[in-house]
C-alpha cells in the first residue's frame, strides 16, 4: 500500500551540473545547479533561486554554460554550491576554456553545453531560464559509435534533494521501444 506524503516534489534525482557565467569585468563564476530539465529536443530549463549571485550575470549576458559533473570532481562542484560568488572568487575552482559562444567550459567536465537564454519567468522565488543550446562539447572517448553521448561512459552524478545526496548512475536497463514491442507481442500475440 502507498502512503500519501503530501505535496512533496518527488522527481529527484536530477543531473548535478555546474553552471558557468561571466559577470562584471569579465569574471567567471561557477554555481552548482540540479534544478534542470528538458522542455523540447533543443531547449532546456534552468531554475535558479533569485538570490544567487550568478543571476545578475545570466540576466546581463543571457548566456551560460552547463557542465555535467562526474565523480572525479564532485567535491569541487559541491563547493561551488556552498559559497556565494558575491563573497568568494570562484573563478579559479576549475581549469576552463571559453567555448565558441564565449562561455566558460570546465576542462574536467565530460560534457558541457553553451546556452542562450530565450525566455525567463519567475516563480516561487526562482528565476527560470528557458535556454537554447548553442553548442554541446563531449570528450571523444565518451561518444558511442554513432557520435552520440554515451552515458554509460559519461557517468554523470545525480543529486537527490530530500536527503541532499549525490548518486552514481548505473548501467543500461534495456532498449527504449524494443522493450515495449516485446511486451506488445506477449500481450497481443
Task: Describe, in plain words, how this protein is organized in 3D.
The chain is of the alpha+beta class and 189 residues long. It is built from 4 helices and 12 strands; from the N terminus they run βββββαβαββββαββα. It has helices spanning 54-61, 74-80, 151-154, 178-188, and strands spanning 14-15, 17-22, 28-33, 36-38, 43-49, 63-68, 96-98, 104-106, 111-123, 126-138, 158-160, 165-167. The chain has a 7-stranded antiparallel beta sheet with strand order 3-2-6-9-10-5-4.
Helix/strand/pairing category: alpha+beta
Radius of gyration: 18 Å
Q: Count the strands?
A: 12
> Which regions are unreliable across 5 or more consecutive residues at pLDDT < 50?
none
Enumerate the strands of the largest sheet in spatial order, edge to edge or round the barrel: 3-2-6-9-10-5-4
User: Helices and strands, in N-to-C order?
Assistant: EEEEEHEHEEEEHEEH
Question: Count of DSSP helices?
Answer: 4
- Gap between N and C termini, in Å? 32 Å
Strand content: 35-45%
Largest sheet: 7 strands, antiparallel
Name the overall outline. globular
Average predicted local confidence, pLDDT:
95
Helix content: 10-25%
State the main characteristics.
3-stranded antiparallel beta sheet; 189 residues; single chain; 7-stranded antiparallel beta sheet; alpha+beta; globular
